[in-house]
Amino acid sequence: AQSVTQLGSHVSVSEGALVLLRCNYSSSVPPYLFWYVQYPNQGLQLLLKYTSAATLVKGINGFEAEFKKSETSFHLTKPSAHMSDAAEYFCAVTSNYGGSQGNLIFGKGTKLSVKP
Amino acid sequence: DAGVTQSPTHLIKTRGQQVTLRCSPKSGHDTVSWYQQALGQGPQFIFQYYEEEERQRGNFPDRFSGHQFPNYSSELNVNALLLGDSALYLCASSSIGSTGNTIYFGEGSWLTVV
Asked: b/e string for A71-103 if b means 16 or more Cβ within 10 A?
């Protein structure tokens, strides 16, 4: 079985500060990992995905994440927070990306607040 | 190019009623998945449709059923609604034959059961 744990349901940073959102996964098979962002009253937008290529993945809006197998982690970072980054962020895992597309297991989410 | 579209965007139903939610996948996508997102929670996988058949199912009761049409659009039906069914229902589309393809989500349908 696969699972995702997001540490911290709420993270608050100042504008211009480093954003670090933590995600740890559990998977008995090679995982494929994703970060999605959800703005209020909207659906999910893909930020980035890891599908067994480069371990450092760059996404949209300046976000990036590093896959660390030894730590079973896939933390999301952004060097400098912007007010527009305030949203909820979800980490998700699946396996056999080509064969079981859509069967994503999501974490509970981390709400990011950005202070001016 | 339209993305994933869902309807209705909001609806209110009474306990015991039935509801149908609709989804049109992104152009070129043949696989539709449905997720339930309760308030303050991450989305939970309900089921996936491909070639008009349910291919995978999450831990949801039989009250939740679906359908996929030849044009790849899909419906989610929930019977005998419970208060706990109140949630955002998200539709996701992808192309099952394309390795590494992105999964796109719609804006969702907000269901309130009173």
From this structure: eebbbbebeebeeebbbbbbbbbbeebeebbbb
